[in-house]
Amino acid sequence: MGLWVSCEGSFFRPAGRLFCSTARACGEPQPKKPLLEKTKELRGRLKSLTPHEQVWNVPNVLTFSRLVAAPAVGYLILQDQHAAAFGLFAYAGITDLVDGWIARRWKLQTVVGSVVDPMADKLLMAITVGCLAAKGALPGPLAILIFGRDASLAVAAIYYRYASLPLPKTLARYWDFSLPSAEVHPTTISKWNTFLQLALIGLTLSFPLLAIAAGPADVEQQPAITTTTTSTTTSRPAPPAPASSHDDPAAEKPTYASFLHSPTTDPRLKTTVSGLQLLVGATTLWSGFSYAVLKNAVTILGTDERLKARQGARGRAVVGVSFALVCAAAVGWGLREWEGGQRRVAEEEWRGRNGGGKGEGSG
After folding, report:
1. Which residue stretches does the UniProt record annotate as biased composition, category Low complexity (predicted)?
2. What are the residues facing 182 on neighbouring strands?
3. 102-161 pLDDT, tens digit each
4. Alpha-carbon distances of 186 from 69, 106, 351, rounded to whole Å
5. Distances from the Cα of 45 to the Cαs of 40, 51, 164, 171, 176, in angstroms?
6. SS3 for 132?
7. Which residues fall within 8 angstroms of residue 329, CB to CB, at 6 or more apart?
């Protein structure tokens, strides 16, 4: 009788079966969760512990549009599409001012914006400067300084991102900019340098537009002026002669270098461009080394102060060493150009003396 108990007075079952529904609570092992479910649960916990930001706001959209505009500006420069290149470059400069104002006005600052905004500026400047240098509108050493400084900062940014990224350090989390790990604070001289670079590039891009506005008659007079002043302009090679522009329609479009080096260009305008180039070069040097010296230029997020200090020192060392190599390359390129120019001047003087002697003998 002890082996049977009544259940609701109408059904009998063994007493041992009464507790079958609570057997797991009495010590039986629970079944393991599938690996996929455990992975999803772990990811959910990580997301709840790691702060995320709202990336797609108006300032960041404007910033990302500058990233897209940068290669387009370079393509237009190489294709001598002067008006389109200047217009798109002006758009990039205006949005650079507008997105920062919107972010401050409506408190939309994000860590993503603090990283991508200077990245977009540097990409735009690097592509524009490289294309203008390829067209002969900017000196080679200046282009190396500008491009090299941005490249050294980009290398340091790669290190800062990896060193400051919270564990686990995976490729997906590395490119997930909603996971803040470090903040970049542009230095004061860097802001001035960016402004001066924009002014120099904008002025250089506007040169062909000024030539077109002057009209084809003024452009066609360039070969006559060059031939009448040959004795005084032997130190500089003559620009491409547009006298045959009526035969070749493609030659009617003046290039950046031909207008910058044309003897008909206002000397005051040439002096302004040369002075601005020197100023940009000096501020680029100052700005590059400021990131290797100032400790508050980059703030690494986290609680381990000793680790943050060690990571910051390594990042500044990366900037200093890489930018020093860039400066050495710029000096070497400048010396090479200077030696080549001296040889050309000597050859032109020798040819001028020989030509003058023949002319006197024949007379």
Report:
1. 223-236
2. 300
3. 988 888 888 788 778 878 887 888 899 999 999 988 998 999 998 888 888 888 888 887
4. 22, 21, 53
5. 9, 12, 20, 19, 17
6. helix
7. 144, 148
Residue that has been written with the tokens 């493609």 in this structure: 250
Reported CATH class of domain 55-204+269-354:
mainly alpha
| Residue 2 burial (10 A CB sphere; 0-12, 13-18, 19+) | exposed
Backbone angles phi, psi at 276, to 5 degrees: -70, -35
Contact call for residues 323 and 290 (beta carbons, < 8 A)? no
Mean pLDDT, the chain, rounded, equals 75
State how far the Cα of 24 lies from the Cα of 30, in Å rounded to an integer: 7
Cα–Cα distances (Å) from 309 to 60, 131, 156, 169, in that order, read: 30, 39, 15, 20
Output the six-digit token pair for 239. Answer: 């620009």
Taking the domains of the chain in order of start, what are their residue ranges? 55-204+269-354
Per the CB < 8 A criterion, the answer to whether 260 and 273 are in contact is yes
